[in-house]
Amino acid sequence: GWEVGAPVRASALVRVRSVRARFGPAVPVVAGGGVHEPADALALLDAGADLVEVDSGLVFTGPGLVKRTNDAVLYRAVGRG
Length: 81
Known about the structure:
Radius of gyration: 13 Å
Largest sheet: 2 strands, parallel
Distance between the termini: 46 Å
Order of helices and strands: HEHEHH
Number of strands: 2
Strand order of the largest sheet: 1-2
Helix content: 55-70%
Mean pLDDT: 91
Strand content: under 5%
Structural class: mainly alpha
């Protein structure tokens, strides 16, 4: 079976941390799973993802999620002064 949405968020974080720990920075990690808010994407980046995929979040929270997530990532990168 398949799980989508918020129920997979915690397991996605665990998996990203595991892959990053095993392979280090040499292997790009693309992650997704339960990204319904910008904070969810930031958590995956913090866990070691290089790129975050948004899919079910578009259904559950709407197309504005992509812009809000980009804004959050940009703010984190340059907005802290």
